[in-house]
Amino acid sequence: MEAASISHAGAHDHGADHHGPPAANRSSRAEPQLLGMLLFIISEIMVFGAFFTAYFFIRVAQGAPWPAHGTTLPVGVAGFNTAILVSSSFTIHWAEQSIKRGNRFGLKAGMLLTFLLGCSFLFIQINEYANIGFAPQDAAQQTIFYSLTGLHGAHVFIGLLLLLFVTIRSFRGHYSPEEHRGVEVPGIYWHFVDIMWLVVYFTVYIL
Amino acid sequence: MLNPLRSEGEAFRFLLYALAVIVALIVLVLAARAIF
Q1: Domain membership flag for residue A20
Q2: Residue pairs between chains A and B whose CB atoms are closer than 8 Å
Q3: What is the domain-level CATH number for residue A168?
Q4: Is this prediction's pTM over 0.90?
Q5: Integer angstrom CA distances of residue A63 from A68, A107, B28, B30
Q6: The CA-based dihedral angle spanning residues A148, A150, A151, A154, taken in that order and rounded to the nearest 10 degrees
Q7: I need a surface site. Which of A28, A121, B21, B24 has the fewest CB within 10 A?
Q8: Any idea what DSSP says for residue A3?
């Protein structure tokens, strides 16, 4: 009680000299960057959850055939694309482990490879849209197909922007074994995008 | 306990577990379709 009173009095005294908004509270258990990514990814899971709800509503509640009659989904091409995206998680992990050990070549090569693999994934997906033979407005199943894969594609695009920044910074000599948060946080995001694609691929193309 | 949001390394390990689960599910679904 006494300690709390002293602490409170101290804070009050400090506040008398303080100008502007109060200092933000900081958790002693989580770093702000990781806490921000945690909250962001939780919100992202909820967004994807809304789209998956629509997907299961159409398939389970309405009992609609999947895919719609007269259409086929390119399971093989999407599987190849899945392999590309999974590979990109390995390369960004290599980049992160490299900079932790002070290996700058590994960082640069890993980031460049990750960026190129991500670009390849997006290019193949756009090519798939161009050749798939149906449009989003054709049926509810097609709407959900484009919504789920498109939502994920948008996340890949955002991830590619982050990867581009990290790649440019790594070529400019940024990051060190002591300070590599700029690689770690986009890395967590990229793995999240990859895991989400595995779920999308299984539900949309396989199930 | 594994926390995929604590570090990139743990997120990568979580991805590997997720990959193993998805591959097992794909094998199960394809086997079920072949049998039934």
Answers
A1: no
A2: 53
A3: 1.20.120.80
A4: no
A5: 11, 49, 22, 21
A6: 160
A7: A28
A8: H
Mean pLDDT (whole number) for B13-36: 93
Name the DSSP class of A144: H
Chain length of chain A = 207
CB contact under 8 A, B9 and A93: yes
Q: Give the number of domains in chain A.
A: 1
Give the side-chain half-sphere CA count within 13 A for A167: 17
CA angle A30-A31-A36, nearest 5°? 95
Total domain count, chain B: 1
In tens digits, chain A (207 residues) has pLDDT values of 444 444 444 444 455 566 787 777 776 676 777 778 778 888 988 999 999 999 999 998 888 888 888 888 999 999 999 999 999 999 999 999 999 999 999 999 999 999 999 999 999 999 999 999 888 898 899 999 999 999 999 999 999 999 999 999 999 999 998 888 889 989 999 999 999 999 999 999 998
Interface predicted TM-score (ipTM) of this complex, two decimals: 0.90
Distance CA A185, CA A162 (A): 10
For residue A112, tell me if it sits in a domain.
Answer: yes
Give the range of the structural domain holding residue B30, as residue numbers without chain letter.
1-36
Residue in A96, A97, A195 nearest the CB of B18:
A195
CB A86 within 8 A of CB A197: no
The position carrying tokens 């199930």 is A207
Residues 1-36 of B with CB under 8 A from A: 4-9, 11-12, 14-15, 18-19, 22, 25-26, 29-30
Q: Tell me which residue range forms the domain holding A112.
A: 31-66+75-206
